[in-house]
Amino acid sequence: MLPPLRNPYTSPTDFNDLAKDVPAFAPFLRSTGGGRASIDWQDDAAVRGLTSALLKRDFDLEIDLPPDRLCPTVPSRLEYVLFVLRLALLTADTPSTSSTAPQLVGLDIGTGASCIYPLLACRTLPPTSSSSSSCSPPSPLRMLATDIDPHSLSYAKRNVACNDLQERIRLFEVEQEGKVFPDEVVGGEERIDFTMCNPPFYASEEEIASSLAAKELEPFAVCTGAPNEMLTTGGEVAFVSRMIVESLSLPHIRWFTSLFGKYSSLSPLVALLKHHGIGNYAVTALPPQGQTTRWVVVWSKGGRRFPPELLYPSSFAPSPSPSSSASLTRLLPPSLLPSTFHLPHPCTLSTARAALEGVLSELVPLGKEGALEWSWDEVAAEEAEQDGDGVAVRVRARRNVWSRAARRAAAAAATVESPAAGASASARQAAPPPLLLELRIQLLPSFPPPPPASASPAPHPANEPGPVRLVSTWLSGSPAEPDAGRAAYTGLWGFVVRKVGERVRVADGKGATGTEGEGEAQEETEEEGERAGKRRRVEVGGEEA
Ligand code: SAH
C-alpha cells in the first residue's frame, strides 16, 4: 500500500483564499465577477507571485527566481513528481506501508533555477518522525539534480539552502555536449530509483512559434524561458534518444522517465525503445492543467513491470476523452494492460477462489525449491472486502512448472525420485534460481451490461452464483531474460484460466473435458486445446494468453 501522497490541487485554486493565506499575493488579484478572482496570466510578476504563494502555503517552500528564467507552474510540476514517486514506491523491493517508506534516490535532469522537482519531491516525502531516536529522523528520499547552466544552478543552490534541504538534494553542473547521465553524477550511487526530466522541448525558434499558435505551450512560460530552457539540438526527441542509449549501460537505475511537450514525439521514442530490446516501458499523459497536456515516457531494464494503475487516462476504465486514451493505448506494450478472462459458467466467488487455489496447489509439488509459490494478497483482500468485490492472489515462479513438457518431466521424475533422495537434499540447499515471473490474479464479480438509462447495476450477492472474471497483471519478469519472462507470463496465465474454467464446470456438476489431478487427463490434444482456446474468450489488453 502506498503512503498517502498529498495533492492540494485536485480542485481549482481559490485565489481569494490564497491571498488571505499569503498576503504578498493579494496585489495580483483581479476580480472576475461574482466574488471570484484570478490573475492576469500575461503579467510575469503575477504568475511568479502565484508560484511563490502556492509553494509557501502548500509546501512551506521559499524560492527566489532570476527574472530571465522559466517560472514553473506548481500544480503541473507536482503531477510529475507524484507520478515518479508513486512509480518508485509501488515497485520498490521493500513494499512500503503507510508508516515505513523505503529510502529512495531520485535524479532530476535539467533542474533549472527553481530546482522545483527536487524541492517538491522532498516536501512530498518528508522524513518520517522517529519515535526512538535522539538522532535526526530517517529521510525517505534523496535527490540528485543536474543542469548545464551555471546561472540557474547558482539560484538552485540558494533555493535548496534556504529551505534547509542541503542534506537531501545534491546539485551538479554538467556539460551540454557530455553525457546526460555523467559518471560523476550517477556513478557514486549504489541504486537510483527514478530519473525525471523536463527537457528543452524545441529544436528551433520556429517550432516554438508554431507550438504557441497550436496552444501546446503554456503562454506565460514563453515570456520567461531562456534559450537553454526551451531549445536543444534536435528537440525533445533527440534529447531523450540520448537518454535511452545511455540507459542501456546503467543497470543500477531502476526507472528512466521524461516529460514531453508534443504528442508527435512519443511514437519515435517508443520505436527506439523497441529497437533496443526494451519491452518494459509505458507512455502516459499526466492529468491536464488547463489547456496543456504533458506526456511521460517511462522505461526500465529491471524486472519490475510498469504498474498499469499509474496510466492516465486509465486505459481500462471509461475515460472522458476516449480518443486520447485509445491513441495512447496503441503505444503501450501489449503485455502491460491487465488481461481479463470471463469464467464460462456462473459461480460464486468462493467456488472460483477454491478452483484457483486447487489449480495453483497442484502446480507447487511439480517443482522444487520454491519453483512456484503463491499467496492471497491480504491487503488487496481487505480492500476488496470493504468494496464488496474480489480477491487477489500473487504467484511467484522461479521455474516453468505448468507447460505440458514441464508437467511431463515432473511426472517422469516422480517415478524415479526415491534413489536420488540424497542428491535432491543437497540440491535443496543450493541458492534458489532467480525469479522468472511474478503475477497477480484477481477474482472479481462481473457485471451484466447496464440496462439503458438505469442506475448502475449491483453486483450479484456473494453467496449466489453469478458471472465471475479473472484479471491478471504481470508484476515482474526476469531482467536477464525478458523474452522468457513474457512467454512464462502468457503461458502460466493461459494454463490457469483453462484449468480454473474446467474446475468451475466440475464444481457445478456440468462435467469437464478432463479430470483434474490425473496426469494424462491434463494432456490436451491439439484439437481440444483449440476448442478450449475458443471457449476462453480472453479479452486481452494485449496478446492472447
Ligand atoms: N526542471 C525545470 C527546468 C526545465 S527547463 C522545470 O521544470 O521548471 C530545461 C532545463 O534543462 C534547463 O535548465 C536547461 O539548462 C537544462 N539542460 C539542457 N540540457 C541539459 C543537459 N544536457 N543536462 C542537464 N540539463 C540540461
Task: Give a quick summary of the entry.
This protein has 545 residues and is α/β, with parallel strands linked by helices. The chain has helices at 15-21, 44-59, 74-90, 116-124, 150-162, 183-186, 205-213, 221-224, 227-230, 235-247, 266-275, 322-329, 349-363, 378-387, 404-415, 421-429, 482-507, 526-536; strands spanning 30-33, 36-38, 104-109, 141-147, 169-173, 192-197, 253-260, 281-285, 295-299, 339-342, 372-376, 391-397, 437-445, 468-477, 538-540. S-adenosyl-L-homocysteine binds next to helix 4, strand 4 and helix 9.
Question: How is this structure best described in words?
Answer:
The radius of gyration is 27 Å and the shape is elongated. The protein is built from 18 helices and 15 strands. It has 545 residues and is of the alpha/beta class. It has helices at residues 15-21, 44-59, 74-90, 116-124, 150-162, 183-186, 205-213, 221-224, 227-230, 235-247, 266-275, 322-329, 349-363, 378-387, 404-415, 421-429, 482-507, 526-536, and strands at residues 30-33, 36-38, 104-109, 141-147, 169-173, 192-197, 253-260, 281-285, 295-299, 339-342, 372-376, 391-397, 437-445, 468-477, 538-540. Bound molecules: S-adenosyl-L-homocysteine (SAH). S-adenosyl-L-homocysteine is lined by residues 70, 72, 109-112, 114, 116-117, 146-149, 152, 174, 176, 180, 198, 200, 228-229, 232.
Using the CA coordinates, give the radius of gyration: 27 Å
Q: What is the helix tally?
A: 18
Shape: elongated
State the major sheet: 7 strands, mixed
User: Averaging pLDDT over every residue, what do you get?
Assistant: 81
**What are the low-pLDDT stretches, counting only 5+ consecutive residues below 50?**
316-320, 419-423, 512-545
End-to-end separation? 28 Å
